[in-house]
Request: fold
Amino acid sequence: MTEPAAQTSHLVLPAPNILAVASGKGGVGKTWFSITLAQALVQQGQRVLLFDGDFGLANVDLQLGLTPKHDLGDVMDEKMTLRQVVQRHTETGIDIIAGRSGSGALANMPLPRVNDIRDQLTILAGDYDRVIIDIGAGVDRLNLHLAALAKTLLIVVTDEQTSWMDGYAFIKKTWQTSPKADVRVVVNMSSSVAEGEKSYQPIKLTAERSLGRAPQLAGIIRRDVKVSAAIKSQTSLLTRYPNTDAAHDVLALAKTL
Ligand SMILES: Nc1ncnc2c1ncn2[C@@H]1O[C@H](COP(=O)(O)OP(=O)(O)OP(=O)(O)O)[C@@H](O)[C@H]1O
Ligand SMILES: [Mg+2]
Reply:
């Protein structure tokens, strides 16, 4: 089976302070983790921009109960610049570029517009200590194209085997096109730290065997009932339930970045 050639006609060098959160399998907690990590970094005193890079199912704003005045749709339509659609989420202190929730419009964005947004994001990154891109699930071209902007890529998996296989596919594709990318694995919703380590091992071993190198383990985040409670109340976990296992795990992971 031949794989489609990676998009190389418009090469943007990855910015050192851009970090992307990606996964092969959907629903592994990327958006929740991106928000929580962003807030953890704000709490360390960093200026953080969170970019909703899930063009199909944007929902950073939904998880935070934010009603964006403007979003990426306005940038796609060339009505506004990327900088103009940045909105501060006052409760967490995160600057947010929202996607367009409940609309598939962004998923069909023409490639020149995507490239223009990539260029603008790279420039905007200069105003921040850290930019986090929440990428949609799956190894499709647009997701890999956005991930290529990031120096650091966190691949989220869970304790389920299917997420390891799909996560590994993302790692492999990324290193094919960006061999210098700093790729790390986050095991989320893990039943325990020991179980999380067990989930990382097959990815590490497969990568070592097939690619000659393995992604580091960035951290393990335990499954916590308060995560969904916080999402339901459209409040961030670190604001609503800062004293929980999942909150502590993300804070610890943030310190290692
Ligand atoms: N550590 C955790 N403990 C318990 N539940 C969690 C945890 N992390 C995420 N979840 C649950 O997983 C659900 C999916 O999370 P989220 O929407 O962030 O995933 P996603 O990977 O962004 O999904 P998609 O692939 O659709 O973008 C959340 O609604 C939340 O309830
Ligand atoms: Mg998501």
Summary: Residues 23, 26-32, 54, 57, 136-137, 188-189, 221, 223-224, 227-228, 231, 246 surround adenosine-5'-triphosphate (ligand 1) (CB under 6 Å).
